[in-house]
Amino acid sequence: MGVRIQHEDFDVSSELAELRRGNPGVGAVVSFVGLVRDLNEGDEVSVMTLEHYPGMSEKALEQVVAQARERWDVVDVLVIHRIGDLRPTEQIVLVAVTSVHRGEAFTACEFVMDYLKTRAPFWKREQTQEGARWVDARQGDDLAAKRWEQ
Predict the structure, then answer these.
(1) Are 115 and 32 in contact (CB under 8 A)?
(2) What is the pLDDT of residue 141?
(3) Is the pLDDT of residue 149 over 90?
(4) Which residues have a Cβ under 8 Å from the Cβ of 109 and sit 6 or more positions away?
(5) What digits encode the pLDDT tens for the residues 64-91?
(6) How many CB atoms within 10 Å of residue 91?
(7) Which of 27, 4, 7, 6 is nearest to 102 (CA)?
(8) Is the pTM of this model over 0.70?
(9) What is the C-alpha to C-alpha distance for residues 74 and 140, in angstroms, rounded to an integer?
């Protein structure tokens, strides 16, 4: 199904149903949904603004999906990433993978999410009581992505 970057929210159930619709070979659907938290680094977050580099972000995500398809026997992969102003509890990202067996789907889904966090050009700015601040990349995200290097 591919990659979408959008302001609008998404319906996880509808997206998963569409991803597997009409394919009797799909034996597993694995998904990850990332949400805006109300706390980060001990501070309350009222709004998170997500920005991206149009064209480059889509290309980076498409490359990650292509790598997942090359590495694992998956039927389909979907990535939806939201941009704009988001509030705590709102959905940010959906990564969904279908495959014949669950193992391939779990692994590919984790890979896509790990690479998305480190390789796709998205920027996050949080609004806290202290003011606005940019969110730096987490060392844990870099370490998670490193384990996939061949």
Answers:
(1) no
(2) 67
(3) no
(4) 30, 31, 32, 95, 96, 97
(5) 999 999 999 999 999 999 999 999 999 9
(6) 16
(7) 27
(8) yes
(9) 26
